[in-house]
């Protein structure tokens, strides 16, 4: 018999947890040292964020008679408000999120053979690529946002806002420039960490579906011991096949473990939905309006300028974020559907009626689609991404017609 390897799934969240702690959004444990100081650090950044948003709201109110001026500030305001609201909902359920992270390495989720390990390892490498792409887009937007005011023909600031002082004076301008860019970078990292935590959890569902499908497709490559499955050697596999009754009993035990694994996957998906549902709903509810206002602003500036590049990268960030969420949703639906097909590929023709009855019950359970509902209104999937784009285009057309 072969000894199973182990895979540390918590490493998938290690990068995100570090950023959470740096931003001040990792809820401290009761025994954490300097907990009060950490709370002050969190309150400091929240205060800066609220000051930034308030200054833009006041500016839009004062400029309410000019649609162009309102829209010039609206896309940043909506983005920051949605990011902050999403992160606060995550912070509220941070203790539950910590429990889910701890349960990533639960026994049923562990790899049971070399192929399982390769599936988890390959997905981890793909995750790092996704992280790097998202971070590149976010930081590129911040870089162009920082350069834009410096290269402008006249003295301008990153985001149009109201200030209780004359920001055009050299020292005031310098402090305003530092303030706005610091808050922008902070919000970028907040959005990045929140999205990556959700992506990682959704990615984990896909990993477990792949592992379960492989186990079902190769059910006779495993044996049951101490409540778990272990990879079997070719020699022991031949021994099992010699006695068909013994083989049927072994396969029935293996199948029961797969049934439990499937139920754990469903439970894990529901836990993610419960914790992240409001977060994801705010994302979907706000992105269409943010996209259309950003694209409207892009159409108003000279193409090829630094400001246009900033707006272009900003739009790409919004589109990529929305697309990845929807892609993961469709990926979970697709991989969940493969479980039913994999269940049919078990060696049921060589097993007794007890195995077939368990298999029938399992296949009936697997018929229910695995998905991530959002707000009880729709299921996260690629068709929803198309709907968001269509809505954003409709809003953009309306704004141009009003102008």
Task: Give structural notes.
The chain has 403 residues and is an all-alpha fold. It has one domain (11-402). It contains 11 helices and 4 strands. It has helices at residues 11-23, 35-62, 67-92, 94-102, 114-151, 170-217, 234-242, 244-300, 306-344, 353-366, 382-402; strands at 222-225, 228-231, 373-374, 378-379. Strands 1-2 form a two-stranded antiparallel sheet. Strands 3-4 form a two-stranded antiparallel ribbon. The longest helix has 57 residues, at 244-300. It is elongated. The relative contact order is 0.12.
Summary, kept brief:
With 403 residues, the chain is mainly alpha-helical. Helix content is 75%, strand content 3%. It has one domain (11-402).
